[in-house]
């Protein structure tokens, strides 16, 4: 029994070390990160507009009204943050100057995903949301941040 426990601990330690070794962020590529950052700003605005156009999105008494109102506010915040990040990246600001901006925006996106899971989004709005999340997940490795759940 002691051998089995020892073997299990060693195996888990080796697995952890192997997964940690492969977790190095990709080399910073200003052009690639800037391109994704610009697309993120476009997709953030597209999601904001799709959310505002969504039919039957604010049904009182359903419990979704509160979540939807929160998403509306968060959509504007995300749009502003994405545009700011894109502008800084386009101006040549690298990872050191934009990492905190990205991490703050990602946190808002992750918080919004909680409201999204409790709310109904029509197909165009959900597609726009998924594009936005995809852009954030493309940028995350460059900043050494774990991508969000898809």
Reported by name, the CATH topology is: Four Helix Bundle (Hemerythrin (Met), subunit A)
Which stretches of 5+ consecutive residues score pLDDT under 50? 10-21
Number of alpha- plus pi-helical segments: 5
Structural class from helices and strands?
mainly alpha
Shape: globular
* Oligomer status: single chain
Helix-residue proportion: over 70%
Largest sheet: none
- Reading off the top of the CATH hierarchy, the class is best stated as Mainly Alpha
CATH architecture: Up-down Bundle
Specify Rg, calculated over alpha carbons. Answer: 19 Å
Number of E-type strands: 0
* Number of domain units: 1
Return the average pLDDT rounded to an integer.
Answer: 84
Portion of residues in beta strands equals under 5%
Describe the structure.
It is a single chain. The chain is mostly helical. It has one domain: Four Helix Bundle (Hemerythrin (Met), subunit A) (Up-down Bundle). About 75% of the residues lie in helices and about 0% in strands. The protein has helices at about 1-20, 30-55, 65-90, 95-120, 125-140. The radius of gyration is 19 Å and the shape is globular. It starts with a helix and ends in an 11-residue tail after the last helix. Residues about 10-20 have low confidence and may be disordered.
How is the secondary structure organized here?
Elements: H1 2-21, H2 30-53, H3 64-90, H4 95-118, H5 123-139
Helix pairs in contact: 2-3, 2-5, 3-4
């Amino acid at each position: 029994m002691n051998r089995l426990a020892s073997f299990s601990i060693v195996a888990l330690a080796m697995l952890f070390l192997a997964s940690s070794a492969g977790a190095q962020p990709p080399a910073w590529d200003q052009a690639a990160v800037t391109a994704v950052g610009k697309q993120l700003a476009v997709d953030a605005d597209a999601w904001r507009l799709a959310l505002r156009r969504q039919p039957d999105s604010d049904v009182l008494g359903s419990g979704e009204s509160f979540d939807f109102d929160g998403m509306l506010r968060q959509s504007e915040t995300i749009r502003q943050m994405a545009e700011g990040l894109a502008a800084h990246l386009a101006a040549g600001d690298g990872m050191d100057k934009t990492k905190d901006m990205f991490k703050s925006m990602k946190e808002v996106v992750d918080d919004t995903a909680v409201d999204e899971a409790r709310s109904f989004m029509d197909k165009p709005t959900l597609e726009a949301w998924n594009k936005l999340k995809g852009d954030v997940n493309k940028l995350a490795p460059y900043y050494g941040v774990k991508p969000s759940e898809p």
